[in-house]
């Protein structure tokens, strides 16, 4: 996993997102800026973690990338093809539909209660590949069940007959059924117990190694992101405010928000008191483009922060932060 | 802490006790169509005034059932088969499990209160949040009219809600998850209870909001000298905010100890495994070790006496096939229910 961080920078990115915006009109010329000029890329075989608090636009961003929502402006390039111009309704017919798959947050809600595990796992194969006979499908389902460590006798069960960990495995098997190049994981372990969470994290690490997928791992559990990802993107109110190699961001956060986020992680070890973020986040509705989004909650905020929006600057190799006071 | 001394000290409880709450040998069963589920068996622990105690364990370990039983809000299928829960009120010690509903209503919200896991479903969606605070005050205090409103606004301010006067008239859907949880805390603490039961109060909240909510509970508990039970599956969170921790597995209390002692030297194999399975800053991926196996079926007619024995790698046939009820005390205040505890 660590060797991937040293990939030569000329490697062609698998996913390249540039200047992506997504706004939702909420009437009378006002709009909610959910994703605001976001740019990043994911290289083949790389795991990128996306963290931020609820309401910061993580889910909107992944819905735009997985083409479940239309783009307001900006481009998404996946494997040499511009996907941002493909309409949401046309995307299921796109050859790239197979290449991007999602693992959802709640393993119970994201499975069809009237589908057996077998139906769930073979559904994407039937829909997007087609042309398989029953024996082939059964062989594929058995192979996938083995891959995710789901006992084959459970394939005939319905979701309510499976445990949380088993349902999570079914969700993962469905997502990897078509050998996607990019797997988007939306808080895949937040509904699981620690004992099961550890199993699923090991499974995900193992699958990545065996199938060579890239991961976009969305979570608000920073400990989990640290274990599984090579690079981390920190999002705050629609903007990426810090990005860099995971260990470096954890050990030397440069943005006050990242610092607060990391200091708030509960741990067994005694540690200095968490850095408090006071007050409520600013409104994402028609935000002033010249005021830093964290202004008002930030312990470092000064006049400059409400006059000039800080932009991402490279503060160390591959480590970017958007703060006037990144030192 | 009375795990095994409980039998000898019960006679003395009526006269004098330093403990605010003492739960002794609690058994709870659920009758279902497919059999009786023995959800809790011989659960014993005690809370001292002003102390924060964490109850941790996987889902299905009986944490929430314990809380619901103490509050007297157990589902109708649930039945207390045995046990006592002595709660020290101003005048007398009452057994929460035998008290009639009418006097429990006097206690709930005033002497002991609870905050629930999901604030959005626990709050009344069609009632202004301020009104939901005054409901509690109207039940338990002599306040009326403007005094009620003023006190509710004061409570909103004490849980650090910005613009409390305006927020008094807000509905739950208008507030964020963190703010809703603070409203719940304001309702729970409106009458300055002696004991607060917090059932996963921060699950579903962000880490930054979690820190704010937990610090708030801790600060208010210190100010009001209130004891608290924090129910969580997050060991790291419990370790930061609790004085003592009770570890539950499949309806048994397997270990209970002061926080630092528990994390420095866990004695029960289950506690050690839970700690090993928790992701932590500075923990390598290879050191994150899953717990094998599942909780035993609590509906079965024969549940192994040690409910962890089937998942335990220290299992020894003859020895571990007896109920591990003799609690050993490796160090003072550190109790473990295991025949072969870790050294």
Could you explain the architecture of this structure?
Helix content of chain A is 26%, strand content 21%. Chain A has 327 residues and is α/β, with parallel strands linked by helices. Chain A has a domain at 44-67 and 91-229: 3-Layer(aba) Sandwich (Rossmann fold). In chain A, β7 (182-186), α5 (194-211) and β8 form a beta-alpha-beta unit. In chain B, the strands form 2 sheets. Chain B has a 7-stranded mixed sheet, with helices on both faces. Chain B has a 4-stranded antiparallel sheet with strand order 2-1-4-5, covered by helices on one side. In chain B, β9 (244-249) and β10 (252-258) form a beta hairpin. Classes of the chains: A alpha/beta (327), B alpha/beta (343). At the A-B interface, α5, α6 and α8 of A face α9, α10 and α12 of B.
Structure keywords:
heterodimer; A: 327 residues; alpha/beta; Rossmann fold; four-stranded antiparallel sheet; 12 strands; 21% strand; B: 343 residues; 11 strands; disordered N terminus
């Amino acid at each position: 996993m660590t060797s991937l961080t040293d990939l030569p920078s000329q490697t062609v990115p698998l996913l390249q997102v540039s200047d992506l915006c997504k706004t939702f009109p909420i009437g009378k010329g006002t709009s909610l800026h959910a994703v605001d000029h976001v740019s990043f890329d994911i290289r083949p075989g790389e795991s990128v973690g996306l963290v931020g608090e609820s309401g910061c636009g993580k889910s909107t961003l992944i819905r735009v990338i997985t083409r479940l929502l239309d783009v307001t402006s900006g481009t998404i390039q996946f494997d040499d093809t511009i996907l941002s111009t493909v309409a949401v309704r046309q995307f299921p017919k796109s050859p790239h539909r197979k290449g991007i798959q999602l693992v959802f947050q709640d393993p119970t809600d994201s499975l069809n209660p009237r589908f057996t595990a077998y139906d769930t796992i073979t559904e994407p194969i039937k829909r997007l590949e087609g042309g398989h006979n029953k024996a082939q499908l059964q062989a594929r389902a058995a192979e996938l069940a083995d891959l995710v460590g789901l006992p084959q006798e459970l394939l005939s069960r319905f979701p309510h007959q499976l445990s949380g960990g088993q349902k999570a495995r079914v969700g993962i098997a469905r997502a990897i059924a078509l050998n996607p190049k990019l797997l988007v994981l939306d808080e895949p372990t937040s509904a699981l117990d620690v004992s099961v969470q550890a199993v699923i994290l090991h499974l995900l690490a193992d699958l990545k190694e065996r199938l060579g997928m890239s991961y976009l791992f969305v979570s608000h559990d920073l400990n989990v992101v640290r274990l599984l990802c090579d690079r981390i993107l920190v999002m705050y109110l629609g903007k990426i405010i810090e990005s860099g190699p995971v260990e470096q961001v954890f050990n030397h956060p440069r943005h006050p928000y990242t610092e607060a986020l990391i200091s708030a992680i509960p741990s067994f070890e005694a540690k200095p008191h968490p850095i408090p973020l006071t007050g409520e986040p600013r409104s994402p509705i028609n935000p002033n483009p010249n005021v830093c989004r964290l202004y008002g909650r930030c312990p470092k905020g000064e006049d400059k922060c409400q006059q000039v929006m800080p932009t991402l600057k490279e503060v160390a190799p591959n480590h970017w932060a958007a703060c006037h006071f990144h030192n | 802490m009375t795990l095994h001394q409980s039998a000898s000290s019960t006679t003395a409880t009526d006269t004098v006790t330093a403990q605010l709450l003492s739960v002794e040998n609690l058994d709870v069963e659920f009758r279902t169509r497919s059999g009786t589920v023995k959800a809790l068996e011989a659960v014993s622990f005690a809370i001292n005034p002003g102390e924060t105690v964490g109850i941790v364990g996987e889902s299905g370990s009986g944490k929430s059932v314990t809380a619901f039983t103490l509050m007297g809000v157990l589902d109708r299928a649930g039945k207390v088969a045995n046990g006592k829960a002595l709660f020290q009120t101003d005048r007398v010690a009452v057994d929460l499990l035998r008290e009639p509903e009418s006097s429990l209503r006097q206690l709930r919200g005033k002497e002991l209160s609870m905050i629930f896991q999901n604030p959005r479903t626990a709050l009344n969606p069609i009632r202004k949040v301020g009104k939901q605070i005054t409901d509690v005050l109207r039940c338990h205090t002599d306040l009326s009219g403007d005094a009620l409103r003023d006190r509710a606004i004061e409570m909103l301010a004490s849980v650090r809600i910005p613009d409390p006067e305006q927020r008094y008239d807000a509905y739950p859907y208008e507030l964020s998850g963190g703010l809703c949880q603070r409203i719940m805390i304001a309702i729970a603490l409106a009458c300055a209870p002696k004991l607060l039961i917090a059932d996963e109060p921060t699950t579903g909240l962000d880490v930054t909001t979690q820190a704010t909510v937990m610090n708030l509970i801790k600060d208010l508990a210190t100010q009001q000298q209130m004891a608290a039970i924090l129910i969580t599956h997050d060991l790291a969170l419990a370790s930061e905010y609790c004085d003592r921790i009770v570890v539950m597995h499949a309806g048994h209390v397997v270990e209970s100890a002061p926080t630092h002692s528990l994390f420095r030297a866990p004695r029960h194999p289950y506690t050690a495994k839970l700690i090993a399975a928790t992701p932590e800053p500075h923990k390598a991926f290879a050191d994150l070790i899953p717990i094998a196996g599942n909780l035993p079926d609590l509906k079965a007619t024969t549940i192994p006496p040690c409910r962890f024995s089937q998942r335990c790698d220290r299992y020894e046939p003859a020895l571990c096939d007896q109920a591990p009820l003799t609690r050993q005390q490796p160090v003072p205040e550190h109790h473990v229910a295991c025949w072969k505890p870790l050294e």
